[in-house]
Amino acid sequence: MMPLAAIVIWIVTLLIIALVIVPVAVTLLRRALNAAWAIEGYLADMSTAGGRIATHTGAIPALGDTLETAATMHPVAEAIEAKTGAVAGLLVARAEHRRSP
Description:
By secondary structure, the protein is mainly α. It has two helices and no strands. The protein has helices at residues 4-56, 60-99. The longest helix is centred in the N-terminal third of the chain and has 53 residues, at 4-56. The chain crosses the membrane at residues 6-29. Keywords: Membrane, Transmembrane, Transmembrane helix.
């Protein structure tokens, strides 16, 4: 049989474990579990937002085609502008010619 001092030490140790360590451990585990659930919710929100971003940015590759088309249209636009300027000048000259007596 164990001496009385050993039994008292065992009882005190078990009481400390049962009354202090176990509740602290349970509290910390609950906090960790709540944090994990919050992280899971944040990840779900990020996944949803990422899907929406991917949907909204899906047309970005088409911008390259648009830029290529615009580059090929630039000389045509310059030619149109030059011809329009010539026509405008001609119309101004005619209008001034009609005003003069």
